[in-house]
Amino acid sequence: MKVVKKIDKDVRLKKVYRTILIGMILVLFGGMIFLTQYQNQNQWVDRFNPFMKMNIGYATLPTSVTYNGGKKYREDGKAQQFPDPYKNIWVADDPFGEGMLLDFQGGQAPEGKNYALVQHKGIYVKRISFISWKSIPGVYRDIMSEEYYEVPSMKE
Fold this sequence. Notes:
CATH class of the largest domain: Mainly Beta
Mean pLDDT: 86
Number of helices: 3
Keywords: Membrane, Transmembrane, Transmembrane helix
Oligomer: single chain
């Protein structure tokens, strides 16, 4: 009788293990499909996506920044002022002109350094560094504009 109960238990567990294994395989394939289909659409997906690589690019930034939703900077210092994010900034990822439009926070660029070295993974921007025109490699300078031109949004 013990042998029959053990065999019965093993058969039931086999079905449970098979169901769990099939479920895990479906979750794995579903996750892979999700990560490959939603690249460059959501910064949180791009941030943790193991199928994407971190890129470094260069961008021309506007010389002036607005604060608190489009207002000018006030010197009085009574209220906190937060810089608005840079929107629709073209970041050149390679010397052949490949790149993408990105939105990121950065604040006011220092005088004479209205260019950025941008480290990003898809649309997730990890960090930026303000740099001068002369510190941009020549092959990138050839495809970039020295003056900032607003790029219309392609997201809408």
